[in-house]
Design goal:
4-stranded mixed sheet; O-acetyltransferase activity; TBL
Length: 419
């Protein structure tokens, strides 16, 4: 038999083999490393390009989204359909201590209101997103122009809201305010723009225009003329009108029209809706016969609700709006503080006008805001409510006017979107 041949490896041979294997492994690793680094660098470059493209696309999308919000169109989006969403992260754009132009009547925090939640509710329409008020955009829109709010104290509240929303972006030496009993003017000098308020609670003339008559029974309306007021509305670029709450005294309104031999003794008492229709048609006739739509745009703010009967929003133990801290959640809430007859008159009269009038419909969204009124944190007769009066909200809570900052800021978001 043959014997198996056995290799006998000497030490030099073993050392040589180890060196060859090591050299092969080293070369192989370097090749892998080179391939890995090339792939890695290529991957990083691709990722960087993708990240850059993604960032650019995101930025473009944001710009497009912002642009689409700026081009908000109420004909496409029904602003009345939506809900109030609480958002504590977005702070109000001013406060009643930071804005020097607020009346004490609406400065609720300064007047001692302890809760602040009413300032953080945002209106979210069902079909679109309402853009936040952009002060710079508003001022650019108004460059070289006049904006005038015309109406009662609720319209004055919207005017003050608008002024406070823009004034903080204007340097101190570039702005001024001139307050008057009837006509007040805020001026943004750098923009050569004015934001004005003209007091005309009925729009038509009355004996309670300048010296306010507190007793509604003593007020007399001249429902067929606006001449005394309207001369101040000429040469204005943007006119924003409103009139409602002064008509709703619950009484028949003493109304004059035409020439009466007995002067003011010749009035007739008319139902509120009838007198309102006569007065609004007088205003509409003036607009149609006087306004050049190529030079002046006309707006009309619908009625601002009052909240006097808490049982209407499901709080039978409530006292007017006094203890309310949240909006009403019931969809399409509508109380007696918004007269549907008046809304119908506004729709019909404006619908027949030759001049295009943009309606700022704030009624339904404001109906939910039982929490946003000044309540007992206000003044009456030029004096703040006393502690005894605050303790009696049934007789002293103001459920007509609104705290600022607050709900009227939302009205101005809508207004600016239509400006």
């Amino acid at each position: 038999m043959m014997k198996a041949y056995r290799w006998k490896l000497s030490l030099p041979m073993i050392a040589g083999i180890v060196c060859v294997v090591a050299m092969f492994v080293l070369l192989y690793n370097e090749t892998l490393s080179s391939l890995y680094m090339t792939s890695f660098l290529r991957f990083r470059s691709t990722c960087a390009r993708r990240d850059h493209v993604t960032d650019m696309k995101r930025k473009k999308d944001e710009e497009n989204e912002e642009e689409s919000r700026v081009e908000y169109d109420e004909d496409i989006c029904d602003i009345t359909e939506g809900k109030w969403v609480y958002n504590r992260t977005i702070k109000p754009q001013y406060s009643d201590t930071s804005c020097p132009y607020l009346d004490r009547q609406v400065s609720c925090v300064k007047n001692g209101r302890p809760d602040s939640g009413y300032k953080f509710w945002q209106w979210q329409p069902r079909e679109c997103s309402l853009p936040r008020f952009d002060a710079k955009r508003a001022l650019r829109k108004l460059r070289g122009k006049r904006l005038m709010f015309v109406g009662d104290s609720l319209q004055r509240g919207q005017w003050q809201s608008f002024v406070c929303l823009v004034e903080s972006t204007i340097p101190i030496g570039e702005k001024s305010m001139k307050r008057g009993r009837v006509h007040s003017v805020f001026r943004a000098k750098e923009y050569n723009a004015t934001i004005e308020f003209y007091w005309a609670p009925f729009l038509v003339e009355s004996n309670s225009d300048e010296k306010i008559i507190g007793d509604p029974k003593q007020r007399i309306l001249k429902v067929d003329t606006v001449a005394k007021h309207a001369k101040h509305w000429l040469n204005v670029d943007y006119l924003a009108f409103n009139t409602y709450v002064w008509w709703m005294s619950g009484l028949k309104l003493k109304s004059l029209w035409g020439t009466f031999a007995n002067g003011e003794e010749g009035y007739e008492e008319l139902e509120a809706a009838v007198a309102y229709r006569l007065g609004l048609k007088t205003w509409a006739n003036w607009v149609d016969s006087t306004i050049d739509p190529n030079k002046t745009r006309v707006f009309f703010t619908t009625m601002s609700p009052t909240h006097m009967r808490p049982q209407e929003w499901g709080n039978p133990k409530g006292i007017k709006c006094a203890n309310e801290t949240k909006p009403v959640k019931k969809r399409a809430q509508w109380g007696s503080g918004s007269d549907k007859r008046i809304m119908k008159v506004v729709t019909e009269v404006i619908g027949k006008m030759k001049t295009h009038v943009t309606m700022i419909n704030i009624t339904q969204l404001s109906e939910y805001r039982v929490d946003a009124h000044t309540k007992v944190y206000t003044e009456t007769g030029g004096k703040l409510l006393t502690n005894d009066q605050k303790a009696d909200p049934l007789n002293h809570a103001d459920c007509i006017h609104w705290c600022l900052p607050g709900l009227p800021d939302t009205w101005n978001q809508i207004f600016l979107s239509n400006l």
